[in-house]
## 1
Amino acid sequence: MSPVREGRIQRVGADAPAGQVLEALQEDGAVIVHDLLSGDVVAAINGEVQPFVDAADPDMRHLNPGVQLFHAQTRHVSGLAGKSATFATEVMVHPLLLALCDSILGPSCARYQLNLAHLLERLPGAGAQFWHQDEIVWNLVPEPHPELQLASVIALVDFSAENGATRVFPGSHRWEAGRYPRDDEAVAAEMPAGSAVVYLGSAFHRGGPHVGTEPRRGVHLSYTLGWLRTEENNYLAVPPEVAGRLPRECQEVLGYAVHDAIERGGGYLGMLDLRDPVELLQAGWPGSAGAD
C-alpha cells in the first residue's frame, strides 16, 4: 500500500521498502505498519500464549506502585520469546523490524539487542496510561544522546479507539526539553490484528482507556543498544536451555552474542570464558540443546 496519512501518522504496508518506512518513522516519530504478521502467525502466537494468559493475574503485584498503576486491569505475560517459538522466530527477528534497527540503532552500537517482549491483555475498564517516553528508563544517559530504543506495539486482535489503542503524539521525538503532550495532540493507532505501530523511544505515547467490552491483546516489543542494560533480564526470560533451540539470529538478538566494538575503538561486552556465548550455544553449551 502507498503511504497514507491519518491524523498525522503515516500508514504503510509491510511490503513497503524499509527506507520508506524509516522515512515515515523519522518524520513523525511513529508509523503504522499494516499486515506486519500474517493471520496464521497471529493465530499461532495466540494459541501458544493462551495458557500463560489464562494463568496471568490482572491484579498481580508489580515491582513498584508506578508500574502497578501502569498495568492495572491487565493480564501480563513476560519473556514472550521464551514462551512462543512463533513469536521468537517470526516476530522478534522480523526482517522489517531489524532493518529499522539497523538504521536507528546500528550507528550507535556494534550490535543491538532485544530490550523487552511482553504480551499485554488490557481488560475492559482499564484506564488510560500516563503519557511517557520509553527511553526514560535510561534517563542517566547524558543529553544529547542518540536514539536509545526502537519500540512497537503489535496487535493480536483489532485495535480501536474504543478498546484503548495506543495513542501516539506525532512529532514529539523532536520536541524541546520541557515540552509535554496535550490530550488533543494524541492520535489513536487504530489497526487490524497483525499490524503494528512502530515508534522511537524518544516519542511520547500512552495506552488509551479501554471502554469496550472485549479484552485488547497486543505485544510490546522493543530493542535497544547493545551496551545498555535491558529492562527485562532476557537471559533468565529465555535461559540457555530454551535459547539453544532457537536459530542463531534469535540468540544474537536476545543478547547471547558479544557486543564487540573493538573495530570502533571500543571494547567488548558479554563474553564468557573469553569466548562468545553464542558460539557456545551453537556448540551445545551445557544447559542448552544446541541449535536445531
## 2
Amino acid sequence: MYSKKIVIRYTPDIVQQPIIYQFTKKYDLVFNILKARIFPRREGVIVLELTGLKENFDKGIRFLKEMGLHVEPLAKSVSQNTEKCVHCGACTAFCPTGALSFEKPSQKVLFDAEKCNGCELCVSCCPVRAMEINLL
C-alpha cells in the first residue's frame, strides 16, 4: 500500500462539485481529511492523506489535475526557516506526528516534512515563527 499527504487547491468554479467523492471511488483510494477550508463560490484548500495502490494514486492525481485542481505534496507547503530557528525545541512538544524532533548530539530541531499533517500547532507555539505553512 502507498500513502501520501497532499494539498488540493480548489477554484471558485469547481468548489461545488463532488470531486473528492468521484476521485476516491473511481481510483479505490482511502482518504483521511487532515484539514479543509472550503467556502461556497470561493477558492478552497483541502489536505488529505491518501492510501491505496501507487498506480491508482498516480491515476487519481492525474484526474484531479485534469479537473482543473492544483495538487501538490503537503511537504511543499510546510517548511522550517532554519535562519530564524533558534533550536529551542518548543515546537517538538506540540507536534502530534513527530515531524519535529530534537536531535541531542547537534542540539538542533529537525523537521521531517513527510511526517507533517499540516495542523499548524508548530506555527503558534514557535517563539520566533520559524515554522511556515502556506496552505492558502
## 3
Amino acid sequence: MSVDRTDLDLGIMLKKLLKERALSMRKLSALTGIDTATISRIANGKQQAKPDHLQQFARHLGVPTERLFQAAGFDVGRQQGDGKPSDIHESVDTIQEVLVSSNLLDQQFTTERVKQELAKYEKYALTEEGQRMILDDFRSKVEQVSGAGPFIDQLKHMFELFCMEDVKENERALLGSALLYFILSTDIIPDYVFPIGYLDDAIAVQLVLGRLAQPDDEESQT
C-alpha cells in the first residue's frame, strides 16, 4: 500500500507535537474524542486525516489549524501571483472547495440558507434596536474572534460605511444585514468543520458585497 507524502508530513508533525507537549496518543484521544487507533494510523501515514480530526488536533495541541491542513495536503491560504493574500472571493471559494470535496458542505443549500438569513436581517438593520446592536456589539465581536477570517477587513469597512450619515437606506440595510449576521452567530456551518471558522459569515459578506456592487434599480433603468 502506497503512502501519500503529505500524510507522512502530517504524521511527523503530530508525533513532534505530542513529544513537545509530553502527551501520549491515548491522552490525545481522551482530549479529542478520536479513537487512539485512528490517531495512530494518521500519525503513521496509514490513514488520511479528516477535517474534523485536524480541527480537534489543532485545538488540543495548540497550533494553527491551517498548519495541520497544509501538512495534510489541503490547499489553503493560497496567494495571488504577486504574493499578496487572495481577496475574499478567492478565499471563500478555496474553503468551499475543501468542504465540498470532504462532503461537509452542500454549497447550494448553504448559500440559500445564508440568503434567507440576510433578508431577515435587512429589515432588522433599519430598526432602532438593530442599529443599536450593531453599534454596541460589532467591535467586541471582532475582538472575540481575534480578527480571524478572510472577511474581517471587509466587515470593518462595512461597519465604517454603516456609521456614515449619508449612506443610502437600501445600502445601510444591506451593510447591516452582514454585520448582524456576524454579530448574532447564526452558524449555519458549524465552526469545527474547518480551520477558518465563520465560513457562513464570509459567504454572507461575499453575497452582500456582490449586491452592493450592483447598480440601483432606478439607475439601471435610466
